[in-house]
Fold this protein.
Amino acid sequence: MKRRTVIAGVAAAGAAAAAGLYRFTDIFVKHYPPTPYDDLLVQLVDRQQAARLGAKLTGAPDAGALAAQLRAGLKPDSLKAAAEADASAGRVVEVDGWLLPRTLALLSALASKV
Amino acid sequence: MTALIDARTLASATVLETDLAIIGGGPAGISLALALAGSKIRVLLLESGGMNFDPAIQKMYSGTETGTRYAPLDAGRLRQLGGGTNHWGGWCRPMDAIEFEARDWVPHSGWPFPRQTLEPYYPRAQTLVEAGPWIYDQKGDADNAGEGAVLPLNGGGLYTSWFQFSKMRADILPTQFGNRYQEDLKRAPNIKPLLHANVTAIRLAANGKQVERLEVATLDSKGGAGKHFTVKPRMVVLACGGIENARLLLASDDVMKAGIGNQNDLVGRFFADNPIPRDVATVVSFSGPLAPFYGANQNLANGAIMRATFAPTAKFSRAARVGSSLSTIESPVDLDETGKAAVITTAIALGVDASNAKAYSLGCGIELMPDPDRRLTLSGDKDALGLPRLKLDMRIADDDFVRFNRTLTELGRQLLASKAGMLRINCHTREDWMTRMDWGHHHLGTTRMSADPKQGVVDGDLLVHGMGNLYIAGSGTFPSYSASNPTLNLVALTLRLGDHLKKVMA
């Protein structure tokens, strides 16, 4: 077998393995079971940490109500802008004492409920 | 050169005549004496203690307390020449202009004059407390004092303000007025400092409008009553501190039955201090360790010692109806799992790298709302010289904490808006606050100043309402309190009194 063919084969196998690891394990990227709120939760880079934080939000409504509230204002890929706008406008919410932009607090609370 | 005279060496029944008797040799009494040094006014400075701490003398301060837990009455003040400056921290900051105003959200607030009235006296006060060049709002070269993150607050409700620190003779921190100025007092030919001289009563003429004489006593070597003598002054300035001034006025009740200056039942009321609870919040700097001027004093090349603090703007104070406060970074802290989650989640959402984030505890000094029921009264007990002891009914309203949390919320918002960091509020219940509570030992308000005799014990010139020759100096005259440490401000106020006395006694 030609040396070039061997290298190409090894590279292809490596790429397939990496793709598999990426898609089916949490080594490169955390995977979560599908939820009805993934259109919102996809904006959280680290959903696990957000859920840990969001679980401390007292008096949060159920997931459906939270999602409805968030969908009314949060556009796709706009969490950063929403957080900045919340901070500028004084829309901050206390979660376990931590002052958070309101949208981030609600999104984190949603993450904790799925 | 006059010596410091030990009153125990005087013969009993001595009568001393003087133009002005200053009762109390703390920062107010000494500043006033120095302001009058070299004038034609003969000044007798009466100090209860000596040059050093004496437990028997200090014991005369003890009293009882009810209500909110507070420092014992014989702690937080010192009965020796220099008074409280023998144990102060040297923190200096001028009061803000808004703190002189009648603020409709701060009951009973408002000085009889604006801050501009005190401004001519601040430079000399700054010199007396030895806090270096006046650069409070300019921060000097503090930014160059070391590397580290600066928290931009971007024009919100709080701004970065600065403390300066008293520094005595280059290497001793801070200035102790007794040690520092004893030679100046001795050098002034018109000043006679008398140590171990305890004023036990202010005696009025029969019309109740003039001080006729002061009764003075010494302690003997066993801590009991020693010699008794009399001072006959033309004018008197009471400068024993916010607690003891009220005690002497209330106890001197032979002519005015409710006590001197107490015809409207105000003496001893409105007692206040600055609560300085620790670790009231956690501040996170996303970009790493903060610049050193936040958490520690910085020695600048120009001789100033400075430290940053977060203060509410006048605009925010009005809009949010908060009292004054000064919040200061204390020390690094570790975050729990929720704290780490908060930092990671928030920084990612804001698009900020927080991989080097550092957390700190935040302490504060708070201005209490004036409260007439926070009050000193005389108790049935008496001290070694027969002077009634005091009872303090101490209170803090929950609203004082609620207001300050509004200020913290704004600081947290500003940190998020500037993407510099974030903040956790650590106190939510009264118990949270009280377990973290410390006190500034700033004794305020008990002989409050007002142009209206029904609202104040002294007028804008510090003259006791209804009296012709009795003045009061010190922070006990502050009708509303500020969060700034009072020493620099009370010295400035006392220097103004010095100018006034020079005029009226000429």
In short: Chain A touches chain B through 27 residues (CB under 8 Å). The two ends of chain A are 52 Å apart (CA to CA). The CA atoms of residues 30 and 46 of chain A lie 8 Å apart.
